[in-house]
Amino acid sequence: MAARALSNLGACYVEGLGVSRDLAKAAKLFARGAEAGDSVAQRNLATLHFKGEGGVEQDDAAALELFEAAAEQGDAAAQDMLSWMLLEGQGDEPDPQGARRWALAAAEQGVASSMTRLGLIAHNALGMERDPEEAARWWYEAARRGDADGQAMLGASLHLGSGVEKDDRAALIWLIRAGQGGSPLAASFVAAVRAALGPEDISAAEAVAAQPPIQEGAA
Fold it and tell me: 127 near 117, Cβ under 8 Å?
């Protein structure tokens, strides 16, 4: 059976699609696919190692190695996860420069969570000089693609005037969207932003926030 077919069959066992859900069978299929060099199988097996599921031992180092193998083949989801692990020091020592490299690769493929991470890396000077403008640009790109944490950080930047011109009305729009999207980061800024606005601006911001962000061309 071809490597990608093994991965696809394993995914069926993970989701219970046409078969009974069986993570142990999925893990065996992913292992065969990963050994044959399939990037999706490598990523899926890495996820099982990361979570310690399907009879697979929880092993951050093994997960990191598999995510990297998949990332090297251009798998965007693996690049995103590898970036997060390198930034957090999961499976190895923290490597902010490596994290930025893989976040950039994933962002080029449209992964919004990596865009948010790039903003955090630039804002917090992780492996690079602090660059609030770059941070705000990445948060905007993530925000308009619907990433809730990116929306929260863009809202905070607009409220503080960090990397962008201060604009509390725009800040409230993005913070409302972030809260609706489940980001816990928005709550600490919403009250201050509302306090800075009059009732008409708050109503206008709430009306805009109820509409989806305009999807422009890729950055």
Answer: no
- Best CA proximity match to 4, nearest among 44, 59, 41: 41
Where does 22-167 have alpha helices with state H?
Answer: 23-35, 39-51, 60-72, 76-88, 96-108, 112-123, 132-144, 148-160
pLDDT in tens, 159-198: 999 999 999 999 999 999 999 999 999 999 999 999 999 9
Angle between helices 112-123 and 132-144 (to 10 degrees): 160
Distance CA 115, CA 145 (A): 10
pTM, two decimals, is 0.90
Per domain, the residue ranges of the chain are 1-51
Question: Which among 122, 116, 128, 126 is positioned nearest to 155, based on CA atoms?
Answer: 116
